[in-house]
Amino acid sequence: MGSATAETDEWIDDDPATRRPGQRGGAWFAGLLLLGVSAVVGCRIADTDGITPVPQLLAFLPWLLAPTTAALLLAALTRWRLGLVWAVAALAAIAWFIEPYGKTAEAKGTPLVELRVLTSNVEFGQATDDLIKAVRSERPDLVFVEECEELCADKLRQAFGPKDAQDTRDTRDTRDTRDTQDTQNAQDTESAKDTYPYRQAVPGNGSDGSLILSRYPLKPAAGVKGTMGMPGATADVKGNEIRLQLAHPMPPLPAHLDDWRKELGALRDYAAADRTRPTILAGDFNASQDHAAFRRILDTGLRDGARLAGHARTPSWPARTAPALGAQIDHVLVSRDFSANSARFLDLENTDHRSLIVDLTLHERT
């Protein structure tokens, strides 16, 4: 009887300081884990991105299940009842917010045209060669390229630009050394010429440059102003006018949180400015659906193409260091005029982002 009473007292006593040394340490560690998790989850509940390090951690919200589960186990081992209740509540909140955010109803009007859209951050142009291979293989209709500096832009022009564009590649006579594969490559390159005769770009060095390639005629648009280039255009797709905007706001680095919020806000304003025409907003948003600033863009009525195709939580970054534990920050957002038939993420060499391809159908608005 006395043993049972003592055991019950251990569960009732919620002050870690009164426990045995081993239990005390476990309970304190569980409490610290839960404090950190609760700060992040609390901001998610409050619909705010908070201050550093909350915005950085919000990108990985689903993975907070791991430290929260660890805290639950520690609370159980140390018989800390309040910790158990706290951990269960935190797990429930995380599980609730893992549910994808935003609208999912697809367009139901008459199908007008099908489009394949590719977005790719080539990381300072380093993945340009792999992007060229992917474009030749996948044959998208629209290509949004972030961090495309001058050499990247030149390579894309040489590979896909108009046939009369100046080609600055090495033209040495290699008749005696070119093998069969080289000949095939040359034929593939020539056949790819003129496939993307239209482009809208913001030139720049390093991460500043970005561009849109199109099989269809483009009319220049003002674009969204930001620290890095975010070109805009209007595409004429078989008589259908579609607004295009590339997204590449600043990342949420501690010193640039205000810029990050401001530029995501500018993208939100772009999305809200014209809801009468079909719109595609694509690129590296440096934000996931767990960021309030990104959800404000979805609240304008745009839908996430990857989510519509069943890939709401597929990570796109960081592709090199921990791809399975990453976050989806590369998106193709579309207006209600589109349905998404499929979405795929491609792994390119020399970039920390996965490329995203979404097959879309434009419908007549009802």
Describe the structure.
With 366 residues, the protein is α+β, with helices and mostly antiparallel strands. The protein folds into 2 domains: 21-98, no CATH class; 111-164 and 186-363, Deoxyribonuclease I, Chain A, CATH 3.60.10.10. It is 37% helix and 20% strand. It is built from 11 helices and 12 strands. Strands 3-4-2-1-12-11 form a 6-stranded mixed sheet. The chain starts with a helix and ends with a strand.
Kindly report how far apart the N and C termini lie: 74 Å
Beta percentage is 15-25%
CATH superfamily membership of the largest domain, which one? Endonuclease/exonuclease/phosphatase
Q: List low-pLDDT spans.
A: 165-190
Q: What shape does the CA trace take?
A: elongated
- Helix-strand pattern: HHHHHEHEHHEEEEEHEHEHEEE
Largest sheet: spatial strand order: 3-4-2-1-12-11
Rg over CA atoms, rounded to whole Å, is 25 Å
Name a few traits of the molecule:
366 residues, alpha+beta, Deoxyribonuclease I, Chain A, 2 domains, six-stranded mixed β-sheet, 12 strands, endonuclease activity
